[in-house]
Amino acid sequence: MNGLTDGVKHLNIDHIPVYLLKTRSSPDDGYEEYLAKLEDGKHKPIFVPVLEHMFRDDALRTLRRAAERFAFAGGSEADARRKATNNPAKKYGGVIFTSQRAVDAFATVVAKLDPSKINALFDKDMPLYVVGPATARGVNALDLPCPIVGEESGNGAALAQAILEHRKTLSPEVTHLEGRPLPLLFLVGEQRRDIIPKTLQSEDLPMAERTPVFEVIVYETGEMATFEEDFSDLLREAKAAHVKEQWVVVFSPQGCEAMLNALGWLEERTGKFSEGNREAVSGPMKTNIVTIGPTTRDFLVQELGFEPDVCAQTPSPEGVGESILSLKAR
């Protein structure tokens, strides 16, 4: 099980496992830290990765070469190098990160750069835009000299608005080169929403505020082949420990069908949720399902006929914690 059993080896009847259907964020995970303290430490967060991420090496090699040629810097050293070696001028006015996987991908680029040149390769005024605290922690761990903006945004729509407002505070030396606006580099997976590029380049904006966005796909995503098996093993071990209560936190539509199948809640004939199956297999242990937001909730309802027990009001550790406590209080 690739070490997943480490999370349940020491479960006992008093523990409340909280299965987080996601990969643990690096260097630390806000969901793990917050939920481990919920109700005086009764809850035990356990990560069950659903998605498998594969970096696009060709894209990352291109980004490394761009960084080495001062694509993220426009200072005097960069200009001197450019004049001496015909290197291109600064190409980007900032970088946008909306997932931990994008941060991890860019981390491999940074790791291959000369550490002694990092401050010359990245302008100290060039913003790194992030979609929330977890992404902010990951970007902060890159140890770049750039400011990190957007930690309080929480979602792509809010981040896009934050970017527009923040850019108004920046010097033209940061946002433009030779009179033309520098694009923001948006590091994405092959499956992504387009709310940020559309908002930043909207025709409803004044021309001076429109911000070009250059998207680079740095990773691909697929459902992990072993997810259902791994999750089933964890559920069996929790049952063997006579756990009375468990929670499952679902972060995306991917893996939803496998999750319900592992729980034994799907009807074999239709592939849809069956309340009868849920009651038949539950026994004395209560299993509650929390979705991180309405997109995942709607997928469960529309595609699988299952209404989750609660949907977090905000896609954050606090939102999940409040959802758990609110459902318990009913």
What does this structure look like?
The protein has a domain at 54-222: Rossmann fold (3-Layer(aba) Sandwich), CATH 3.40.50.10090. It contains 14 helices and 13 strands. The chain has helices at residues 30-36, 57-68, 76-85, 100-111, 118-121, 133-140, 156-167, 172-175, 195-200, 227-240, 256-263, 275-282, 294-304, 317-328, and strands spanning 16-21, 43-47, 51-55, 94-97, 128-130, 148-149, 176-177, 180-181, 184-189, 213-223, 245-250, 286-291, 310-311. A six-stranded mixed beta sheet has the order 3-10-9-4-5-6. The protein has a five-stranded parallel beta sheet with strand order 2-1-11-12-13. A two-stranded antiparallel ribbon has the order 7-8. It is elongated, with a radius of gyration of 23 Å.
Provide a short characterization of the protein structure.
The chain has helices spanning 30-36, 57-68, 76-85, 100-111, 118-121, 133-140, 156-167, 172-175, 195-200, 227-240, 256-263, 275-282, 294-304, 317-328; strands at 16-21, 43-47, 51-55, 94-97, 128-130, 148-149, 176-177, 180-181, 184-189, 213-223, 245-250, 286-291, 310-311. It is α/β, with parallel strands linked by helices and 330 residues long. The protein has a domain at 54-222: Rossmann fold (3-Layer(aba) Sandwich).
